[in-house]
Prior knowledge:
By secondary structure, the protein is mainly alpha-helical. It has helices at about 5-10, 65-100, 105-125, 130-145, 150-180, 185-210, 210-235, 240-250, 305-315, 430-435, 450-465, 495-540; strands spanning about 255, 275, 400-405, 415, 440-445, 470-480, 485-490.
Amino acid sequence: MEAKKVLEKYAAGERYFRRANLRGQSFQGENLSGADFSEADIRGANFKNANLTGTKFCKAKAGLQRRLVIVLLLLSWITSGLSGMCSFFGGALVVLIVRSSGVAEQVYSWIALIVIVVLFAVIIRQNIKGAVALAVAVAVAAAIAVPFAGGVAVAFAVAGTLAVVEVVAVVGSFAMAEALGGSVALAIAVAIAEAVAVAGAEAAAVAFDIGEALALALALAFVLLTMYLGWRALKDDPKNAWIRNLVIGFVATAGTSFYEANLTDADFTRAILNSTDLTKATLTRSCWQNTTKLDQARLGTSYLQNKNVRQLLITGDGQDKNFDRLDLRGINLKGANLQDASFIGTDLNRANLENANLSRAKLVQTLLEGADLTGATLTGAFIEDWGISNTTKLIEIDCDYIFLKLPTQNDPDPKRRPADQDRNFEPGEFAKLAQKIPNTVDLIFQDGIDWQTFLKTFEELRVESDTEELPVIQTIENKGDGAFVIRVKVSEKVDEAEYEQKFRADYNAKLEAKDEKINSLSEEVKYTRQQNTELLIITKTMA
């Protein structure tokens, strides 16, 4: 179905586009809020800057179109061939070591072989980036050595080429895996490289009639290294994450694009999302339950970039997991199992936690302004200094008892409520206890506070306030270890989350400006002292 026809039907009031074929269609900047694209084929579709609020993409298939997959396969085969050729050169070098009769030639060749071994070791133990840096250094050394020793220059150049082409080979192998999916594709790419490498090594051995074993060993070692690195990249190894990000970013440019799209309350349940661009998209309360290949999408800087968070969103199971101090604003955890999970200092403002099981969860200093906890289970949760407001929905909460403090070695009493161990909350009693003074904002400073900057920021926001009731500092709590919690009462017309966000942005900007000014003054003082020292020396000399 063409985009023009979809937009015409949408303008006429139709919202049902299930199983539609939208491959390669463009909806850039269009309003398709509330539409149903469930089970639709959206491979290569363009939804850049589109308004997709509440849109359904359940079981939709995103990613690359078939013709682009073929192009990607061709590119990966080419890079695999380069890998094999590089192995051939390595095999030829080994043969040269065995065949050379001159002492100088053998010394140069053995040095180059040692460089190759070091390159492989750096790649395995550190990452390919370090090997590339070493390869560049080798190439420079080879260029300098040309006037002095031609043999060592050529040998070093071959060694440097090994590392650089290794990068190309791994990227190509991973690109094929991205196109076909998984280790099967990687095995195909490596098989091609192995065929070229072994054939080249055997040819070199026959040509020289010696060193066949060593040539084959080096060629196979190169192929196995490529296989190993490709496998680690597929397994999301942090050392080689840049390879994965590079390939996914490249492939996603031709796949389904949601760049800067508004996906608030969008539903991607059971959707296939490989080669999808979600950079700068608004993901407030978006549903990712049971999606597949989400780790192969371009995720930008959203909460989806965290592997544990992605797993939580897909499976709905976060029991015993640690999510401390993460930015999870607007995340959709409806019905999730979060028993014994830790959210210490986590930003859950405007999150959807309907019917979530938060039994014994650590909600210490957790920000929950605008969050929806309707029907959530909070029995045994630790709510020390949690940040709720009158915008936090605490409706039909299932809670028998709560703890006001997280036990520590110095203070093991969790302050259970109700304090009577034999009594539990009556229906609705917890909500009355938990609901703090309305229209207040808790400003939490974990690493100390610059009081001069704080007061300046606070006064400026008071001046900018367009409400009759100005913000007022109610309490200042010293939590120890430099941590402070400052509670500010604001007008009922003020959005608490926006006020806190504005305050922190202004406060941090002023701190940075202050630090820059201090550094600038320090440089001026150093310069003045240097001038005075020079003047003193000149004066003494003249005297």
